[in-house]
Amino acid sequence: MKYQIEIKGMHCTGCSSLIKMSLEGAGLTNVNADIKTNTATFESSSNEPSKIKEVLDKIFADLPDYSYENIQIV
């Protein structure tokens, strides 16, 4: 399934690269972090948003300068 989240705290390409690497490091695929829209899209084999939320909570716990909201299936 393909998901999209809004990200707060991204302001440069370094930020988007860090977010992208962090999401990929957690096993998410086809990751794109866009600083123009402050969103990230990714794919996961999980079709349960609650499981995706658990993964994202762990990722962003290690990234205190950033936060996410609005998990959407796209």
Descriptive notes:
It is built from two helices and four strands. It has 74 residues and is α+β, with helices and mostly antiparallel strands. The chain has a single domain (2-73), classed as 2-Layer Sandwich (Alpha-Beta Plaits). It has a four-stranded antiparallel beta sheet with strand order 2-3-1-4.
Primary descriptors:
74 residues; alpha+beta; Alpha-Beta Plaits; 4-stranded antiparallel sheet; 2 helices
Concise synopsis of the structure shown:
The chain has 74 residues and is α+β, with helices and mostly antiparallel strands. Helix content is 35%, strand content 34%.
How would the blueprint of this fold be written?
Layout: E1 2-8, H1 13-25, E2 29-34, E3 39-43, H2 49-61, E4 67-73
Antiparallel strand pairs: 1-3, 1-4, 2-3
Radius of gyration: 11 Å
Q: Order the strands across the largest sheet as they lie in space.
A: 2-3-1-4
Shape from CA axes? globular
Give helix % range: 25-40%
In the CATH hierarchy, what is the class? Alpha Beta
Mean pLDDT, to the nearest integer, reads 95
- Determine the structural class based on helices, strands and strand pairing: alpha+beta
**Mind summarizing the main beta sheet?**
4 strands, antiparallel
Order of helices and strands: EHEEHE
Taken together, the total number of domains comes to 1
What is the count of helical runs? 2
CATH topology: Alpha-Beta Plaits
The amount of beta strand, in percent, is: 25-35%
Distance between the termini: 8 Å
* Second rung of CATH, namely the architecture: 2-Layer Sandwich
DSSP strand count? 4
In the predicted model, the low-confidence regions spanning at least 5 consecutive residues are: none
